[in-house]
Design brief:
This protein has 2 domains: 4-59; 67-131, no CATH class. Helix content is 53%, strand content 15%. It has 7 helices and 4 strands; from the N terminus they run ααααααββββα. The protein has helices spanning 4-29, 32-40, 49-55, 57-60, 67-78, 82-85, 122-132, and strands at residues 86-89, 95-96, 100-107, 112-118. Strands 1, 2, 3 and 4 form a 4-stranded antiparallel sheet that branches. A hairpin with a 3-residue loop joins strand 2 (95-96) and strand 3 (100-107). Helix 1 (4-29) packs parallel to helix 3 (49-55). It starts with a helix and ends in a 6-residue tail after the last helix. The relative contact order is 0.12.
């Protein structure tokens, strides 16, 4: 009772809506879920095109973590306040990935550096996913 063209349009719209839901959930769940989404975005042989197009956003468009979290992680790991570690620290990351983000900074001695900061809690998320998936990390 529905033409093929209309049926295809309905399926495309449904896939796009569901792909956006999956994208949102993968971003919320973080870590290996984002990695899985990145992988799936390359598999046009497995997923319909709307999923590929939406999940491609995971390749380079992840939202950055809050600066307070980034600074807290750096201070906790290096044992010093940010002002003692860096003369400048760019607020906006150069890139944000599933397990870390990268910021440009200048050390107190004037050397320019790039600081890669692992997302807070990512170790636990990875270990939890590995544990519940049955994979051994030891």
């Amino acid at each position: 009772w529905v033409s093929t063209v209309k049926k295809n349009a309905i399926w495309a719209k449904t896939h796009e809506r569901n792909a956006r839901r999956v994208l949102k959930l993968m971003i919320e769940l973080e870590g290996l879920w984002v990695k899985m989404g990145q992988y799936l975005s390359t598999r046009a042989d497995v997923l319909p095109e709307p999923y590929i197009e939406v999940l491609k956003q995971l390749q380079d468009s992840l939202p950055p973590r809050p600066l307070e979290e980034v600074c807290g992680t750096i201070e906790k790991e290096l044992g010093k306040p940010m002002r003692q570690l860096f003369a400048t620290f760019d607020v906006d990351p150069l890139a944000t990935a599933s397990i870390a983000q990268v910021h440009r900074a200048t050390l107190e001695d004037g050397r320019e550096v790039v600081v890669k900061v692992q997302h807070d809690g990512i170790k636990e998320i990875i270990l939890e996913v590995l544990f519940f998936s049955g994979n051994s990390v030891l």
